[in-house]
C-alpha cells in the first residue's frame, strides 16, 4: 500500500509541476496533494510545521495566481477591456499549445485595449503588463511547486 500511495504522490507532484505551466491544472495544490499522500506512507519524514507552512504557501500562491495578472494589466494602465481580453486570449491560447498560453493573454489584452482606446502604444503597454503578470504568476507557482517537490524528494531519500 505504501508503494501505491508513493507512486500516486509522485504522479500528483509531476502533475503539479505541469500545472504550473498549463493554466487548466492547479499546480501548487496538486503538488501539495502529493505531499499529503506521501505523508501517509512509511516514506514520510516531514515535520508538522513544514507541512503547515507549505500548505499556507500553497493557498497564498493559488490566490495570487488570480490576482497578479490583473494587477500587472492595471499597473501598466490597462482597463477592464484589457483584463477581459487577456482572459479571452488565455482561453484561446490553451488550444494553441505552450506558445499560445504565453502569447494569448498578451494578444488578448492588446486587442481589448485597442477596442477600448484606439491607441497602439497604450494597448502594447497594457498587453505587456498582462504578459508580465502572467509570467510572475507562473514563476510563483513554479517556486511553490519546486519547494514542495524538494521536500517530497528529501522525504523519500531520508528514509
Describe the structure.
The chain has 159 residues and is mainly α. It is 85% helix and 0% strand. The protein is built from six helices and no strands. Helix 4 runs antiparallel to helix 5 (97-116).
Short description:
With 159 residues, the chain is an all-alpha fold. The protein has helices at residues 2-21, 27-39, 48-75, 80-94, 97-116, 120-158.
Structural class: mainly alpha
Mean pLDDT: 87
Gross morphology is elongated
**Helical proportion?**
over 70%
What is the distance, rounded to the nearest whole angstrom, between the alpha carbons of the first and last residues? 16 Å
How large is the count of helical segments?
6
Q: Runs with pLDDT <50, length 5+? A: none
Largest sheet: none
Mind telling me the C-alpha Rg?
19 Å
SSE sequence, one letter per element: HHHHHH
Q: In the residues, how many domains can be counted? A: 1
Number of strands: 0
Strand proportion, as a percent range, falls in under 5%
Amino acid at each position: 500500500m505504501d508503494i501505491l500511495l508513493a507512486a500516486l504522490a509522485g504522479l500528483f507532484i509531476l502533475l503539479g509541476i505541469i500545472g504550473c505551466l498549463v493554466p487548466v491544472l492547479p499546480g501548487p495544490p496538486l503538488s501539495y496533494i502529493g505531499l499529503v499522500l506521501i505523508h501517509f506512507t512509511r516514506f514520510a519524514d516531514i515535520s508538522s510545521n513544514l507541512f503547515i507552512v507549505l500548505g499556507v504557501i500553497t493557498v497564498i500562491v493559488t490566490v495570487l495566481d488570480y490576482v497578479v495578472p490583473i494587477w500587472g494589466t492595471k499597473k501598466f494602465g490597462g482597463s477592464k477591456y484589457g483584463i477581459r481580453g487577456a482572459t479571452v486570449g488565455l482561453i484561446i491560447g490553451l488550444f494553441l499549445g505552450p506558445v499560445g498560453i504565453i502569447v494569448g493573454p498578451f494578444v488578448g489584452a492588446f486587442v481589448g485595449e485597442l477596442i477600448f482606446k484606439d491607441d497602439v502604444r497604450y494597448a502594447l503597454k497594457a498587453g505587456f503588463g498582462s504578459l508580465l503578470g502572467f509570467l510572475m504568476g507562473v514563476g510563483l507557482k513554479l517556486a511553490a511547486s519546486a519547494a514542495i517537490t524538494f521536500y517530497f524528494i528529501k522525504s523519500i531519500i531520508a528514509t
